[in-house]
Write a structure and sequence with these properties.
about 450 residues, alpha+beta, Arc Repressor Mutant, subunit A, five-stranded antiparallel sheet
Amino acid sequence: MPEEIGQGRPATTGVGRKPAPNGAGHENADGTVTTAEPGGYDGYGCTGTVPRADLPVAASLPKVGTAYSGAAPARAVALDLNGSKWVAECDRHGPMPMALNKFGDAVVDVSAAYVYSNEQAAADAVRLHLDGHARKDADVMTPEDIEAAQALNFSRDQCRTLGWIRDGKVGETAHGFTAYDIRPDRADVAKRIRKSLVPCLWAAGFVKALAVAPGARELRLTDEGARALRMWSNAMRISAVTEPEKDTRHPAVKNSPYPLLSAGKTWPGEQQRARAAVNAEQAAREQATALRVAEEKAAGDRAATPTADELAVMESLNTFGLDADAAAVLSAAYIGHVVTRHRPGATSVRLDEGVGQGNRRVTRTYNINGVEKPIVSAAGEALSAVATNLTDATAKRWHALCTSVDERHGVYRLDVTAAIDAGATVCHCSTRSHRPLVRVRKTSTGPAPPGVRRR
């Protein structure tokens, strides 16, 4: 397999010699010791030398810890097993490594990447690409970048306006250009922009206008405008340029003048496209409103209609001869069914002391995130019609269904899911114990049904 750039190689002292054991250096004829430690090369596979300084030949070198070394974000990658085709790729341009073209720019399609004939050429391209990243990270500008920034020569008003446009704060109406919310320490502070400032930036290709509504536009930076503003800001930060007193008129790249809304001018079809966008937004808003109303109506219908499980719990509660423990479990299950019917996301409820002795009432509901909400009036009315059956005799049964109990203040935190499951178990057992007996009349000579003995 081809060797990756930056991979450590054993040190050698000449042709035909074996690598030194344990990373130790060998003595060369010029009185230096060649080392293969990571501290001895520049990160791209280039091995360095250290003066001997009268050290023994087998002197052990200090080891480099993991805190001092790491994988480079760019590397040379072989496209075939023979190592005849190489490309440079970098990790800092997206969620996955991207190949580089001959200009050092990242490309999505690997077929657009520049293919090198050997590993060293790809490693040189990687080195130059990493140097560019380092300059950007350290705000270092090359002489060519400084010359390009000096050619921009933005005034203070032009630079400030481009910054507002970059932040999406500049709009145009029939009253002219306005920058909104420009003060970080005060709200709703707007400033009018000169009528000739934005059209000049638009003609130079730094700004583009978007029709958002009939008679309204939003200003955005083009890719060239964003690059120019970033370059000018870096040059100002390192004091490589100074701001002129007057605005600079840059070469125009547009053939037609800017149609000002204050003069009643628009681009062909601008009003129709803006109107269509507004209509589409209004239609989407109305559709969302109708969907929300339908969901609220469906939720109201579900809340007003008891489920089959809830009706089964009510029927079991009305069974004659029901013991106290089963009544307590069914009461807790009924509370769970009613609460989840009115608030589907509830996971637990809070029961406080009620008016009667030994009685409790549901006051709060909680969801899985612990968000607390008061019980709705409809659920409160439904729960007030059924006793909770929480007494000293059934307290142990209630404790098993609660996540927390405060006996001092009489507060119970009922687990809705546990209560519903326990109620379903009691209902199943109650149904089996109260199943009516069926007498089978002997009318045939065939085999009797399972569980039935013929006389």
